[in-house]
Amino acid sequence: MDEKYKIVISDCHLSAGRYYQGRFNPHEDFFFDQEMIDFFEHFSTGIYGEGTQGAVNVELFINGDFLDFLNVPYLGEFEEGITEEIALAKCDAIFEGHPRVMAALKKFASKPNKKITYLVGNHDAELFYEKVREKITRHWDPEDQYPSEKVQVLANVDRVRYAEGLEIRHGNQFEATNQLDFQNPVIKLNNGISVLNIPWGSIYVLKIINRMKWQRSNLDKVRPIKVFAFFGLIFDPIFTLKFVLLSTFYFFKTRIFSRSQNLFGFRNTLKILSQEGSFFLDLENEARQTLEADPTIHTIVFGHTHLPMHRVYANGRQYLNSGTWTRMVYLDWRFIGEPFRKTFILIHLKNGEIKAELNQWSGQKAPYAPYLG
Questions:
Q1: Is 196 inside a domain boundary?
Q2: What are phi and psi of 114, to 5 degrees?
């Protein structure tokens, strides 16, 4: 009997911790270290530990944006020219900000027949640097091995396909704003320094969102942004005008007047403007189109949107989105609900069949917890 489990999480956005460099850190979005530790423990012990046929096969699939490098400053600044040195320093800061989660990942990987796979997203493009992949792999591998049989960090592909008809993607490649260039992930500047070839969406986070979160901490949590801007012009006009003008300035500076054709292309700019006209991009249409175009895919899994979703279509094929463990504020009536969902996908593969479920982690109850607003 061929039986295995895959646990899919994404968009947890661990950065440098609640306190960084001696002061409160407004750029940290992850507050559930203990719950995540319990989560890893649950899916590597008990019925997921040892079965009648031996150690149960469980793969923890981290579907992008788990470590949030964009939210970690370097020497007090959010640099858009991200060198390998800067990427490694940010990686160390994240490890130091969430040491217990990192230890729990290593503990998970140390269990028999347990494996971790990490697929790159748009907030962790630093994985394109091999030294960053090596650092993460060694940190989680129980024997400090690189390459590792227990930990695999993938930055050369945007999707993983399994024989049973399961495909997993982060989902950012459907958005022109957040598309990564897998052919040219690192570029060399005129001064000879190599930096990450990051998309416009990453510059938007580094230069606008992170700068203005000091004034409005929920700025990057609100969806859709167009509704936020509309009501902001009425109820918070000074801040909103500043936000809109700064966004427009950086868009024209980096997309229209940039001389580097390696970084930005005219077609991509037009695609960004076209997608910005849509009210809410939840990637369900993209998932359905992918399923219709490829009959060998039975179940497709995305992350990226932070919107947990499970859609089963007439032919039994399905789309799931793993959502996020961070706070979200939805101004779209279709998705109003709990700000923290801590969702994940449990996939059971048995004899070539797929059973997939979208779940919400509750975890063990703590006597108290910090108030998060």
A1: no
A2: -115, 140
What is the residue range of 333's domain?
3-178+284-360
- Tokens found for residue 67: 């470590």
100 domain residue, yes or no: yes
| Per-residue pLDDT reduced to its tens digit, 35-75 | 999 999 999 999 999 888 899 999 999 999 999 999 999 99
Q: Is residue 268 part of a domain?
A: no
Q: Could you read off the pLDDT of 277-333 as tens digits, one per residue?
A: 443 468 999 999 999 999 999 999 999 999 999 999 988 999 999 999 998 776 666
137 vs 62: CA distance, rounded Å = 13
Residues in Cβ contact with 293 at an 8 Å cutoff, skipping those fewer than 6 apart: none
Number of domains in the chain: 1
Residues in Cβ contact with 315 at an 8 Å cutoff, skipping those fewer than 6 apart: none
CB 179 within 8 A of CB 364: no
Rg of the chain on CA atoms, in Å: 20
Confirm if 188 and 320 have CB atoms less than 8 A apart. Answer: no
H-only helix segments in 198-312: 200-204, 210-212, 225-235, 237-251, 266-276, 284-293
Helices and strands (H, E) in the chain, number of each type: 10, 19
